Amino acid sequence: xxxxxxxxxxxxxxxxxxxxxxxxxxxxxxxxxxxxxxxxxxxxxxxxxxxxxxxxxxxxxxxxxxxxxxxxxxxxxxxxxxxxxxxxxxxxxxxxxxxxxxxxxxxxxxxxxxxxxxxxxxxxxxxxxxxxxxxxxxxxxxxxxxxxxxxxxxxxxxxxxxxxxxxxxxxxxxxxxxxxxxxxxxxxxxxxxxxxxxxxxxxxxxxxxxxxxxxxxxxxxxxxxxxxxxxxxxxxxxxxxxxxxxxxxxxxxxxxxxxxxxxxxxxxxxxxxxxxxxxxxxxxxxxxxxxxxxxxxxxxxxxxxxxxxxxxxxxxxxxxxxxxxxxxxxxxxxxxxxxxxxxxxxxxxxxxxxxxxxxxxxxxxxxxxxxxxxxxxxxxxxxxxxxxxxxxxxxxxxxxxxxxxxxxxxxxxxxxxxxxxxxxxxxxxxxxx
Length: 433
Fold this sequence. Notes:
mainly beta, Immunoglobulin-like, 4 domains, 8-stranded antiparallel sheet
């Protein structure tokens, strides 16, 4: 009975404590002075910051989607605010300076007072790299380290740019082979020799009108220029691009790609189907298109909507296959047969010296190259010997292989071996230098 009499006072005390807590929270929210100054400023900037002046033609987009690499590695993100004032040698503000984060293409321009501000949403493992560029001035690049941003995520950076009459604003236009302007093409301009007092690097994207601007480019130097708009167009490349003192408007034309559907089979040298075999198809002509095809249980595969042009096919890992010399056209290769060095043969053996001593981890490789008209087939396998000096290779085809053996403290050995049986065994004797 005593416990029952205590229930009501206890419940009343809990309700009173809860009411007091809610009253304190409500007063805290009503009084902005209780908020930390940095947080209050961030809220004020978010709510009442005036709209920034629209960037001139060719400025970078505010934010692009992260690459696959960063998406996989990213374990979280953080907001980093970088602000400051850009001035010349005399302390005068410089207007219209392009301030860009070089990896994630976040950018802004300085105002009439030279002031700028960037709000960067970056993965935790990335730190900003900023470029300050403007025609008539030598550009500057800053890499903010973990040490500089360890204690604070608001950083002031106020660079001083020196005059450079050889720094220009380079304009251009991107279109396709039908004369239509292309929006969203990525234009990269980078110095060929960064150590030669020229560490210039800039990425911009074409606007809806196809126009773009490359800011603060030093003249009289050669650059690597690439224009990329995948998957519809091949990559435009100029690895010997010279910027003169009076450059013309850049007119870059991207040719439209044509695509093809292919059905085919993967066979071995004995014309037997190779099931469940994966190989990557790379379009050499476009330089960007890549696809992995896989044969089914009967050796058949299909490749849909892949651009025409020269291709190469290759696998990865200790069993390496590569096929080159293949060109996809409108009318050919609707039924494509690929031949790979796969079979049911087996090669084993052991490695030792003349006295029977076994080298430590000798590396044994098998490789073979075959030709079929313009097509070239190359196969390569490698493995290390075990503690007893033994090795074994399976799923081999027929024919002759070049066997190469490397071991520390011994001469390299090369020999030819033709596999004739279902299972072959060889003994390899190494010599010391």
